[in-house]
Write a structure and sequence with these properties.
By secondary structure, the chain is an alpha/beta fold. It is built from eleven helices and ten strands. Helix content is 30%, strand content 11%. InterPro entries: Glc/Gal-6P_isomerase, Glucosamine6P_isomerase, Glucosamine6P_isomerase_CS, NagB/RpiA_transferase-like.
Length: 384
């Protein structure tokens, strides 16, 4: 599991959206080989969606061959209700991109048979080949989707009674009236999320610091369902500084040091988007790091997992030709994007410290950087 720490929620949103963009572009989806994306609702991912829309409008990202599955939906709330998750997803994302209507999948909280609706959803996920990347947020009590504390870690899509804390948290969307908040929801299960080939969680704010600490520093526990990502072979959490307030200082320094090692000793040009290492910097004549790592180490990802069979790293020429001829969209090459590009390194590596920066300085230790893209991203508002 990787933990990426950024300064504030805006930087987290920009990083996350950029990562999703590059994962889709690297995968090079086609009609026969679509990119399947699981998406969350709630306030946390809103700015991520704004950035994705902006990437699409700029021609840097196409959703033509993307299939989406939303995480959850309220029971009994009409789809036309402004606070339904169906309306939420259309308002913030679907109405502004070229995602095909038949590729949008959402749970129906008004179905006559809710159990059958949940089974239909699970079957549909399997039918399209499973979810490639599940993007998610968490609640202050550490729940993923609506998998409240106590949920089975093997659970699948089902009807769930919402905890009172969740009802209180969501009351802000219903004029502060808890009586207007639905008490039941349909939600993908913890097991459904675990089955995705990659999981990317966004955690921001001091009010979620305890949940992050439970996830990172303690064991897997069904009372903190987010902790299940410890068991996933390809999981990443992107958080802001406030969310780390309950972590031990040595834990924060450890994860930040991973970024520094990747950047300074391995070289960003040798690190894949998901953290896989292609070769050592010392094998490049332009680098001289004196690294003593063995060649065997170079085939292991930074999280200790080989990502060579992730499915998104290679594609046949036939599929590539199909993608170009069938897309009908203007899509820039990943290499055409400069400052805002996470790059071939995976955007979780940071720039080398300034030559004038003494080793061990606070900026060096924190692995922080300021660039034009993040500065401009911080100023971005709703583009609609």
């Amino acid at each position: 599991m990787r933990l990426i720490i950024r300064d504030d929620p805006k930087a987290v949103a920009f990083y996350t959206a950029n990562y999703v963009r590059q994962r889709i572009n690297e995968f090079r989806p086609t009609r026969k080989r679509p990119f399947v994306l699981g998406l969350p609702t709630g306030s946390t991912p809103v700015e991520v969606y704004w950035h994705l829309v902006e990437f699409y409008k700029r021609g840097d990202l196409s959703f033509r061959h993307v299939i989406t599955f939303s995480m959850d939906e309220y029971v009994g709330l009409p789809r036309s209700h402004p606070e339904s998750y169906c309306a939420f997803m259309h308002r913030h994302l679907y109405d502004h991109i070229n995602l095909r209507a038949e590729n949008i999948h959402m749970l129906d909280g008004n179905a006559d048979d809710l159990a059958a609706e949940c089974q239909r959803y699970e079957d549909k996920i399997k039918e399209v080949g499973g979810i490639e990347l599940f993007l998610g947020g968490i609640g202050p009590d550490g729940h993923i989707a609506f998998n409240e504390p106590g949920s089975s870690l093997e659970s699948v899509t089902r009807v769930k009674t919402l905890a009172y804390e969740t009802v209180l948290s969501n009351a802000r969307f219903f004029g502060g009236d808890v009586n207007k908040v639905p008490k039941l929801a349909l939600t993908v299960g913890v097991g459904t999320v675990r089955a995705a080939r990659e999981v990317l969680l966004i955690i921001t704010g001091a009010h979620k610091a305890v949940a992050l600490a439970k996830c990172i520093e303690e064991g897997v526990n069904h009372m903190w369902t987010v902790s299940v990502v410890q068991l996933h072979p390809s999981a990443m959490i992107v958080c802001d500084e406030d969310a780390t307030l309950e972590l031990h200082v040595k834990t924060v320094r450890y994860f930040k040091s991973i970024e520094q090692v990747q950047e300074q000793l391995i070289g960003r040009q040798h690190i894949g988007l998901k953290g896989s290492i292609s070769k050592l910097a010392r094998t490049d004549p332009s680098h001289s790091t004196g690294s003593a790592l063995s060649p065997a180490d170079a085939s292991v990802t930074s999280s200790g997992v080989d990502s060579s069979n992730s499915g998104g790293d290679s594609i046949s020429q036939q599929s590539a030709d199909e993608d170009v001829s069938d897309s009908g969209d203007s899509l820039h090459s990943v290499s055409d994007i400069d400052d805002e590009d996470i790059g071939s390194t995976t955007a979780d590596v940071v720039a080398s410290p300034s030559a004038n920066m003494p080793a061990g300085s606070s900026s060096d230790t924190n692995g922080a950087r300021v660039n034009n893209s993040l500065a401009s991203a911080a100023a971005v508002g709703n583009p609609f």
